[in-house]
From TrEMBL:
Domain of life per record: Bacteria
Matching InterPro entries: Peptidase_U32, Peptidase_U32_C, RNA/ubiquinone_mod_enzymes
The Peptidase family U32 C-terminal domain, residue ranges: 323-403
TM regions (residue ranges): none
Cross-referenced PROSITE patterns: PEPTIDASE_U32
Family under the similarity heading: Belongs to the peptidase U32 family.
GO MF terms, alphabetically ordered: peptidase activity
GO annotation (BP), single: proteolysis
Keywords: Hydrolase, Protease
Signal peptide positions on this chain: none
Name recorded for this polypeptide: U32 family peptidase
Amino acid sequence: MLQQPELLAPAGSLETLKYAVLYGADAVYCALPQFGMRAAPPNLTDAELQEACIFAHARGRRVYLTLNTLPTNEELAALPEAIEKAAAAGIDAFIIADLGVLRLAQKYAPGVEIHFSTQAGIANYAAATAAYELGVKRVVLARELSLPEIATIRDNTPPELEIEAFVHGAMCMSVSGRCLLSSYMTGRSGNRGECAQPCRWKYALVEERRPGQYMEIGENEDGSYILNANDLCTAPFIDLICQAGVDSLKIEGRAKTFYYVASVTSAYRRALDAYLANPNADPFELPGDVIDELNRTSHRHYSPGFYFGKEQALQTPSHSYLREWEFLGTVDSWENGAARCTQRGKFSLGDTIEALQPDGTTRTWAPAWLRDADGLAIDSTPHPMMSYTMDCPEALMPYSLLRKRSGGEEGGN
C-alpha cells in the first residue's frame, strides 16, 4: 500500500505525457503501437518511450507501459523483444491482462513491476490475492465495484498489494471492457484497441412483422441511447475513494487530446491535494474550481459510476458531448507583457481568453493586439499551428493552455 494515493494520468503520445506530468500526475500510463489496447492514438515509439522515462523520472514521476491486449499465438513471438526494450527504456511497470504475457514479463524483465489490468476483471479479494501470489504488485480493479466492495478487497488482501481504480473518464457498457459488439458489427476488435463504439450508435426497434418500420424507444427526438454510458466523475467524493483503500487514482483517456488530459489532471491534482491536506475533514470540501475545470473539457454527462451502486451508474439521455469551451493553443514563452503562442484553434481580437497554467492557476484577459511570426499586425489566428504573439499583462508559464468559452453540445461521438 502506498503512503499516499497516486494520481495516474493517460498518455496517447509523448506530447500528452509531458503535459500530464507538468499538470500534476504522479505517474502516467502509455503504450507502444502494439499490445496496448488503444489503436486510435499515435502511442509512443521505442525512442519516445525512452525520452518519456527520462522526462518523467527527472521530475520524480513514474511511467507504466500497457501490454494489456490478449495476444494471439502468432503475436507471442514479438513480445520478448518488446518487453526487453521497454525495460531498457526505463519503465516502472507493465500493465498486463494475460497470464502468458505476465510470465513473459517476469522472464524478460524480472526487475519491472507488474500491474494487473482492469481487463483481467479483478472483482473480489480472492482474485486479487491470487494475482499477488503470481507476483503482481498492483491490481486495477474492475470498474463495476462499489466503494464497500473495494473496502472489503482492501481489508482482505496483503497490505503490500496496491489497489488502483478509475476515477474519471469514459465508461464501457460491457463488463470490464469484455465486448464483442465491435468485432461482430465492424470486424474491429474492442479487445485489441480498435473499438468502433457501436454502444454509442443510434438504435431503433423493429417489429418482425413490420420490416422497415423503425420505432423510437422514447426519451427524445433522436431516439433512446440504450447502451450509451455516462462519463465517470468522482472528484466530489475523492475522499471516500481514498478512504476505501485505493492507492492509485486512474484517469481514463489515452485516446484523448493533451488539452483534455492536462485539464482533467490539473483538476484532480487540486482535488487530491485538498483531501491530503486535511484527510479527516468531515465533510470533505472540494475546491470550488475543480468541477468548473472538469466542465471546461469536452465530455458526456457525468455520473458516479458504480461507486454508490448501480442506479446511476451508466445511463445518459444523449449521445452528444457537452462542450462549453474551445481550446485555442499553447504558450511557448512570456516576456515583457507579450506571450508567444502556437495556434490550436482560431480566435479573434475582442475575444476573452483564459489561460490554464501548469500550477493550476488561471489568467483571463482580452488581448489588445496580435502579431504573426513576422511581427505583422493581425486580427485573428486562422492557420493551424501558426506562431503568433499577443499582449498579456500578467506573466504566463510555458505550457499554459489557452481557451475561450464557446457553449453548447457537440453532436456525435
